[in-house]
């Protein structure tokens, strides 16, 4: 068996692993990157990029079929060519993946090791059946995978995860989506708008990533109005029936329904890929799900020489978070024991449905817990239903709630569903990271007419509730409501 001795071993060649490798390599040449299968990040292969390609096709189809309110009429029926939709998705997906693979191919060959890694001790890894690596420091960046009840495997190839969907060569006629979270909502709404019959089932009433009851209720109604969504479903049975899946469930009126779909999409969450790493061979502190616990500012685990980053850390499973964590973990692994606190940016998350969903800074739940027992925060709101620019472009659905602290007037966080929420979230995230007050945010320029004026409306509402500004005007005398 081959033996290697290095200063830093990075386990996993995805976004976090590549960031950790590059960061460590800036400080030492003695670094290897271990990948169990194929290089190419989750984002490029099966995540953010192919999903946005599906969403783009769905937006084109939806926009083309909803021009009449503008007085624009398209003669003839809008036709979706499923084969061409999926061909473009696969072609562009492969293009994005090729960029990642090309970057990895440019790395020195001795720095790359292919095979599944398993801890023998805190300083030793066995790679497959061919290599023993001894490393002074380690970075775990093994990513995550979809998680769903094992009994669903009885559905065979009719059970799919998002990885499988992007390999389709055509669109199906029907699908049941389990899990109205980020993945389920994005893919489910897109498939519906491309002509696929969609049934979406959830548990406990949760829709999207929200913790604010008002915003989540708005999201639930909005999506339920477009396609079948039961956020607290009672599915009694699900069995393979020929080339379909038969589902027996109680509908929202409590009436038993039996239907067949071509596929079942499991979008019920993800689990960190740490269960086959041999963590039982080292004494490392883990959470209730078996994931090593790490300091979010240094990414150091309870074993001082072992760091963790990305989806494997079970913190925030987002690409920009994985990249930041990887950079911190790799740098600290290289300079250990002289580790440093890394830059952790304000939290920002977006879901690319229509309307879009977004969260910034502290969530409603976190704000509520932080200020439990005192009336120390307020919520400023705006509805996009009457907001000027939103009505002009007929994207007037949504609700934005912004949280601010009494006394300091500090902006704490926000949850929203609305038009172009991805852009509104960036403005708010920058303000949050700069620790701005609501008054300071209101001093910033707002052009007219833009959707961002809705943010100003919510800020004015919040400022008044914090008793830091005058009462809200219900209407703008120059332009009407919502400006």
UniProtKB/TrEMBL annotation:
The protein, known as: Pyridine nucleotide-disulfide oxidoreductase dimerization region
Domain of life: Bacteria
Pfam families documented for this protein: Pyr_redox_2, Pyr_redox_dim
Annotated NCBIfam families: PRK06292.1-1
Amino acids binding FAD: 52, 142-144, 311
Record domain Pyridine nucleotide-disulphide oxidoreductase dimerisation: where: 349-458
Cofactor binding note of this UniProt entry: Binds 1 FAD per subunit.
Intrachain disulfide bonds: 43-48
Lineage: Bacteria, Pseudomonadati, Pseudomonadota, Gammaproteobacteria, Alteromonadales
A GO term, aspect molecular function: flavin adenine dinucleotide binding
Keyword Nucleotide-binding: yes
InterPro entries to which the protein is assigned, alphabetical: FAD/NAD-bd_sf, FAD/NAD-binding_dom, FAD/NAD-linked_Rdtase_dimer_sf, Mn/Fe_SOD_N_sf, Pyr_nuc-diS_OxRdtase, Pyr_nucl-diS_OxRdtase_dimer
Organism, scientific name: Psychromonas ingrahamii (strain DSM 17664 / CCUG 51855 / 37)
Swiss-Prot/TrEMBL cofactor(s): FAD
Active site annotation, chain numbering: 448
């Amino acid at each position: 068996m081959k033996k290697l001795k290095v200063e830093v071993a990075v386990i996993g060649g995805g976004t976090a692993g590549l960031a950790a490798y590059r960061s460590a390599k800036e400080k030492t040449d003695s670094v290897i990157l271990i990948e169990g299968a194929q290089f190419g990040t989750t984002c490029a292969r099966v995540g953010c990029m192919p999903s946005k390609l599906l969403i783009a096709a769905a937006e084109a189809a939806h926009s083309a079929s909803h021009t009449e309110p503008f007085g624009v009429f398209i003669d003839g029926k809008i036709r979706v060519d499923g084969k061409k939709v999926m061909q473009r998705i696969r072609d562009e997906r492969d293009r994005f993946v090729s960029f990642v693979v090309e970057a990895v191919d440019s790395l020195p060959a001795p720095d790359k090791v292919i095979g599944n890694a398993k801890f023998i001790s805190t300083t030793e890894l066995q790679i497959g059946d061919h290599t023993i690596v001894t490393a002074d420091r380690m970075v775990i960046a093994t990513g995550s995978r979809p998680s769903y009840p094992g009994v669903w495997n009885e559905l065979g190839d009719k059970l799919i995860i998002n990885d499988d969907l992007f390999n389709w060569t055509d669109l199906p006629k029907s699908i049941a989506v389990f899990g109205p979270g980020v993945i389920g909502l994005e893919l489910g709404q897109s498939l519906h708008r491309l002509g696929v019959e969609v049934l979406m089932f959830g548990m406990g009433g949760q829709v999207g990533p929200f913790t604010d009851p008002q915003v989540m209720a708005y999201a639930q109604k909005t999506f339920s109005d477009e396609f079948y969504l039961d956020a607290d479903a009672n599915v009694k049975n699900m069995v393979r029936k020929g080339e379909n899946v038969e589902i027996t469930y109680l509908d929202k009126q409590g009436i038993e329904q039996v239907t067949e779909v071509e596929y079942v999409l499991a979008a019920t969450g993800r689990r960190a890929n740490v269960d086959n790493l041999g963590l039982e061979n080292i004494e490392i502190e883990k959470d209730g799900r078996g994931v090593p616990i790490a300091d979010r500012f240094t990414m150091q685990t309870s074993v001082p020489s072992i760091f963790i980053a990305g989806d494997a850390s079970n913190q925030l499973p987002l690409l920009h978070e994985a990249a930041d964590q990887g950079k911190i973990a790799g740098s600290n692994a290289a300079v250990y024991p002289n580790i440093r606190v890394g830059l952790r940016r304000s939290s920002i998350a977006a879901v690319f449905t229509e309307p879009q969903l977004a969260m910034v800074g502290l969530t409603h739940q976190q704000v509520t817990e932080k200020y439990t027992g005192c009336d120390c925060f307020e919520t400023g709101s705006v509805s996009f239903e009457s907001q000027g620019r939103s009505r002009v472009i007929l994207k007037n659905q949504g609700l934005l709630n912004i949280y601010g602290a009494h006394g300091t007037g500090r902006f704490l966080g926000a949850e929203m569903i609305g038009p172009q929420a991805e852009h509104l979230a960036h403005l708010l995230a920058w303000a949050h990271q700069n620790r701005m007050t609501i008054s300071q945010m209101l001093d910033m320029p707002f052009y007219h007419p833009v959707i961002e004026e809705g943010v100003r409306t919510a800020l004015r509402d919040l400022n008044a509730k914090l008793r830091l500004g005058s009462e809200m005007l219900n209407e703008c005398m120059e332009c009407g409501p919502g400006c």
